[in-house]
From TrEMBL:
Keywords: Hydrolase, Membrane, Transmembrane, Transmembrane helix. One of its GO terms (molecular function) is hydrolase activity. This is Alpha/beta fold hydrolase. It comes from Nocardia lasii. The chain crosses the membrane at residues 42-61. SUPFAM superfamilies: alpha/beta-Hydrolases. Pfam families: Abhydrolase_6 (PF12697).
């Protein structure tokens, strides 16, 4: 005889699957609604999705955008000392270095070119991370030069920094009492067509994101996504429907981007990169070259120096042949002020990676050329 009690038939019915589904339907939201039930449910779901999106956006704004916006509000351009002149007679000349796209502080680049101190005191520009105003930069250089009794200015611009240098040069040449001796351009794209298509598309993609996503100019999350996307060939291994991921390379790339592009004090903000890229898009370099070549009754025209790889294919960012042609048209010719030097081992504006090659070519070719203009501005024979 079994010791288990018999279950009443009603107890068994309570576990009937059809009854369970019916009870589930009875507990659903809107079960008792008779009018516009589907419409009301759709509206409630939309409201729910919007509330979740609002919460996520609030966290994004609070922890990503707001702290960066507060930090950028306190930034401003700076002129930083790098080196003293090698010869005390050259205290009347300042060499000012400007870094390229994605950079903020030109000190490391200028420090990689110690040969520049053979022209004068060496300064470096640290950009305002909120954007670029070339008039403000020019006025800052002129004020420092006036205070230090510096009469002659040489500007050095690397890559996009050369576009900024040309505009700053025009302000100094046309609207100050300082003498512009020379502008040295290192692999500079003089308009957007000089930027190779793959680099151009990455810049355009970032600008599009900045145009429609609120807070994108300050967002470090967006910057991280863009920087990782630009380096995806390092950790993606094509094959099949989806690319395979090299986890070691992914970790190394992630660490590099976080260290150099997100949390570094010398990492450019999205807003600064946008301003730098738009400076190229505006294509003002050709107009600035023309202005520097026009006769000036009170000042001599400055020297224009273009440093580019001998093999143009070594520069994978800028079509240096294209920029070279523009420079010949605007600054070359019989009475031109152009010098083009073509080292064999350099790539795209990389003096930090190739200091020996850069310093050698500057010392052997650039300095003798620029000194003639420096002496002319001093009134020397």
């Amino acid at each position: 005889m079994s010791s288990f009690p018999e279950r009443h038939p009603s107890t068994v019915a309570d576990f009937d699957d059809a009854r369970r589904r019916e009870r589930l339907r009875e507990t659903r939201l809107g079960h008792g609604w008779r009018r516009l039930r589907r419409t009301r449910l759709v509206v409630l779901r939309i409201i729910g999705v919007l509330l979740v999106a609002l919460i996520v956006f609030g966290q994004y704004w609070t922890h990503d955008v707001a702290p960066e916006r507060e930090r950028l509000a306190t930034t401003s351009p700076e002129l930083l000392p790098v080196d003293l002149p090698a010869d005390s007679r050259d205290w009347d000349t300042a060499v000012v270095d400007l870094v390229g796209l994605g950079g903020v502080n030109a000190v490391p680049t200028a420090a990689a070119l110690p040969v520049l101190n053979q022209l004068g005191v060496v300064w470096a520009v640290r950009y305002d991370n909120a954007g670029i105003d070339t008039k403000v930069i020019a006025d800052m250089i002129v004020r420092a030069a006036t205070y230090g009794n510096v009469r002659n200015i040489v500007l050095v611009g690397h890559s996009m920094g050369g576009v900024i240098a040309l505009e700053v040069a025009r302000h100094i040449h046309e609207h100050s009492n300082r003498r512009l001796v020379a502008v040295i351009l290192d692999c500079t794209p003089l308009d957007l067509d000089a930027v190779r298509p793959e680099s151009r598309s990455r810049g355009a993609e970032l600008v599009r994101w900045l145009g429609w996503l609120p807070g994108a100019r300050e967002s470090r999350s967006l910057r991280f996504a863009v920087e990782m996307s630009a380096r995806r060939e390092r950790f993606e291994q094509p094959g099949g429907l989806l690319p395979a991921i090299d986890l070691d390379e992914l970790r190394e790339t992630t660490s590099e981007v976080l260290r150099d592009k997100i949390f570094s004090d010398d990492a450019a903000s999205n807003g600064l990169i946008e301003a730098q890229f738009l400076a190229i898009v505006a294509g003002g370099g050709t107009a600035d070259l023309a202005a520097l070549a026009r006769p000036n009754p009170t000042k001599r025209n400055p020297a224009i120096v273009f440093i580019r790889p001998r093999d143009a294919a070594r520069d994978q960012v800028v079509d240096v042949e294209y920029s070279h042609e523009i420079l010949i048209e605007k600054s070359g010719g019989v009475d031109g002020t152009l010098l083009v030097v073509r080292p064999t081992e350099i790539g795209h504006a990389n003096p930090i990676q190739r200091p020996a090659e850069y310093n050698a070519v500057i010392e052997s070719q650039v300095l003798p050329f620029v000194r003639r203009y420096q002496d002319a501005n001093r009134g020397d024979p």
